[in-house]
Amino acid sequence: MSAMTEAVSLAGRLLVATPALTDPNFDRAVVLLIDHDAEGTLGVVLNRPTGVEVGAVLESWGAFAGAPAVVFQGGPVALDSALGLAVVPGEWPSGEFLGWRRVHGAIGLVDLEAPPELLAPELGSLRIFAGYAGWAPGQLEDELLEGTWYLVESEPGDVSSPDPERLWRSVLRRQRGELALVATYPDDPSLN
Q: 3-class DSSP state for residue 164?
């Protein structure tokens, strides 16, 4: 890994699976990168809603979850752990407040151990993820060089998309140039 690669954090950006990615954990996945440094990379898959309501798992947070108010499968690692992401409207000069840590722009991690009623007035949108996606140091960079993922900018609305099943296509569609055409790639190319 070059010194330049080590210095550039990809936190806050999106990984969008290429149509050639065959791993079922990441088929048509859109991953928000939460941490990216010399120790590795951590992210959550934004477009894998489950049928489990947030209130059934984290009762105190159920009323604050955005629609759809279900737990999302954040990735194949540590499915028994929960992670909260929220979009906070407005400006926060310090970039943080009690129970929330900025990831990128208005997107941040929520401390699910904090009392929800303290954070709720500040949160514009909340999504809960079971598990996460992780990469060892240099692994993600290798996958990017191999063309496994498209690396694009995130928007706050990606985290709280009301139609997460269409997120893969919508993120690609908003890109410039040939990348926008990938959004039209058929679900099953053999039927084309």
A: helix
CATH, residue 126: 3.40.1740.10
In which band, very low, low, confident or very high, does the pLDDT at 123 lie, cut at 50, 70 and 90? confident
- pLDDT (tens digit per residue) in 17-48: 999 898 999 999 999 999 999 999 999 999 99
Q: Residue 188: inside a domain, yes or no?
A: no
Beta bridge partners of 85: 109, 127
Dihedral, CA atoms, 79, 152, 154, 178, nearest 10 degrees?
-120
Q: State the residue range of the domain holding 102.
A: 3-164
| Nearest one of 136, 139, 161 to 45, comparing CA atoms | 161
Residue count of the chain? 192
pTM value is: 0.90
In a domain, 183, yes or no: no
Residue 159: count other Cβ atoms within 10 Å of its Cβ: 24
Domain assignment of residue 182, yes or no: no
Total number of domains constituting the chain: 1
Output b/e per residue, 53-68; b: 16+ Cβ within 10 A. Answer: bbbeebeebeebbbeb
Residue 127 lies in a domain: yes
CA gap 161, 153 in Å, rounded: 15
Per-residue pLDDT tens digits for 135-187: 999 999 999 999 999 999 999 899 999 999 999 999 999 999 888 888 887 76
